[in-house]
Amino acid sequence: MIKTQIILAGIGGQGILFASRIFSELGLKLGLNVLGSETHGMSQRGGSVLSHLKLGNFHSPLIHTGAADILYSFAEEETYRSLKFLRNGGVCFVNLENSKRFDPAILSHLKGKKVGFRTFDANEAAAQIGFARSTNIVLIGYSVGTGLIPFVYDDIKSALESVSRKKELEVNLKAFEIGFLKGKS
Amino acid sequence: MKNEEVRILLGNVAIARGIIESGCHVVTSYPGTPSSEIIPAVVSFKKELGLDTYIEWSTNEKVAFDNALAASLTGKRAAVAMKQVGLNVASDSLMSSAYTGVVGGLVVISCDDPGPHSSQTEQDSRFYAMFAKIPVFDPSTPQEAKEMVKAAFELSEEFQIPVLLRPTIRVSHGKQNVKLEPPRILDRPADFVKDPARWAATPRFRLILHTKLNEILSKIQEKFEKDTRWNVEVGSPRNYTLGIITCSSSFVAILDLLEEFGLNEDISLLKIGTPYPLPKKKIAEYIKRHDKVLVIEEPDSVIELLINDKSKVLGRLSGHVPLQGELSPEVLYGILSQLLSDLGIAKLEMISDPELEKLVEDLDLPVRRPTLCAGCPERAAFFAIKKAFPKGIYPSDIGCYTLGLNLGAVDTVLDMGAGITFASGFYQAYHQDGNDIPIISTMGDSTFYHSGTSSLLNAVYNNARFILVILDNEITAMTGMQPTPGIGITADGSEGQSIPLEELIRGCGIQWLRTIDPYDVKELLSLLKEAREYTQKEDGGIAVIVARHPCLIRYPDVCQEKPVKVTITEECNGCMYCVDFFECPALKPDKEEDLVRIDRTLCTDCGVCVQVCPREAIVPAETKGKNS
Ligand code: SF4
Ligand code: SF4
Which of A1, A13, B213, B618 is the most exposed place for a label (fewest CB within 10 A)? Predict the structure, then answer.
């Protein structure tokens, strides 16, 4: 039975709630229990946004420190803040500008914890296809491409199709595809 | 509708669904985090299912409460939703309605905010249920919240009493796969049956009503004693060293922890879904079978206080549970591991990684504090106020504009309406000593409609003098863009009657009133000076400025009518005045070059910063009108 805990971290306006909806829908399609928790209100005004998502046999929507299987981070600083959620041996996908360097001390600490750590410039990849706002979907596509997450291409794609608004569907699928190809290569 | 439809619903949407499935006729509310999503969800279910539910955004929580209660008196089902501090506002009605009772089911939804994430207190709404003597349901998940709404309507009608539903923020803003059921259709034409001994009860009758209320309450308590749907024991009912009595979001968090760490064989759980009136016999019987019983509830202690024999009970009173703050899984884990080690039951491993936390701490990441949006008209107004009266006192209020704090232009935030009452209070206190200092009060449009008029009437009546700036962005922005009486659109999008702020302000006896677009900082500055003179004139009084500019998030198009593309010239010497005193998120310091740059992804082309830079280093690159 699949039991997966996912943290999505970033700042307001990066489409984190939408990213979380893709995984909720995925859970629904796979017949799993879905539980999640979102940030609203004051903290949305440019502050950090953190979304918890638990698929499988859980009761509470909250993920505790050291328990997340997967971490998606859409902003560098928020990565540092949310790494504490990741379990030993978890995987993490970080949207990071090519030019930037992730803190080496933290990187080696994560290695010691056997964390699968991938950075990818999803901003640029999204901008390249002319949809700067699709960073979230590009990064998810990327993660599927790496084969490091327990979900397959077809399932996530179909979840993305279900939650996308009609006029955004084409763009979203393209963003997903671009990310996926980058992740595979 | 398919019979077994499952959807992922936010807790508040599940509550809305419960309202709809109960066949509720009237739903009212005043927005406030974490309750604001309930009404929009009721509206969308209504539209989806083609129902004729009456839904309103009321002007405040008491008004919302009374309107729902009146509907119930006609025999209809009614629900009223608010955040926990909203219940303070509605508490007058709540207390009295417990005595008079209801006819059609009345469910009062009050969302608690342990943390607090978005509130001025961590108060526990369950105390209000106790205070008013009405029953309360306390859901632990969105699915349960939906079912409890339905049970609450049934109970309310069975005993003719208002019933409280108390979701915490983790239920309201949690999401889950929820089973949908078809709505009930209850055909109940309004039929108010006169009964002055009840609906207009004088103190003599009130005593009778109170006696009846007490009888009802003890009947409900008996019912809760027998209940096994909401009050559930997890684990086989035998004797344990440790048992935990818990409720709401803490219950599910503890359940996950016990399962994860393989403790569910050693520790039993009693989940209480009806904390008031507390099923005391059930609890006493449970305690009897345990050596120690830990009580975990939030944000405060209701169950623990109500337990008669506390000799085996651990909780807040014994110092085992923190007195403030949210009971996150980490906090709960900390409580559990300490206790399990003390009782010799188990030694739990550490879940945190102090080494990692230390490494992150050493990075000294800048705190990302919430800020007004780029191009927000309120920022322009605060900048002008601070500049005009650097030594003024700035009472403010609840809303996005509380973030005027960052600009140093907000000194006090107490509750809804205190922006004005504090201004008059400060004025009278200084005036008594013969001192005259500039007092500039700020309040949003929605807050003014909520509770500004009574405060302003009082200030005018008692000869106070100050400047009131109403930040009118034509929406209730903070809580997610609900309409106001100013724009006159009602909850379901249909047209209501608009009540212009200016008419209301004049109606409060204000003689000096000006309206301005705060984007024009220079003009606002001179208006503020003029206003100050008026407050000092012998025949002067309170000066009111309506600073009107639509919220950029709600009305992006309006704001793009006259975009001002700004650039930064070589005149910029990196003094950071604009960053420190105006703090538009689109103005980004470039530390290497020692100057400021515009972040084009955030900049809204409002052009206000042009008026901010003392070196005139920010200039319009091109100014384009919509028609040019
Ligand atoms: S733009 Fe003006 S205010 Fe901002 S840092 Fe440069 S000189 Fe100072
Ligand atoms: S024009 Fe200036 S004040 Fe307006 S959003 Fe852009 S940087 Fe901020």
Answer: A1
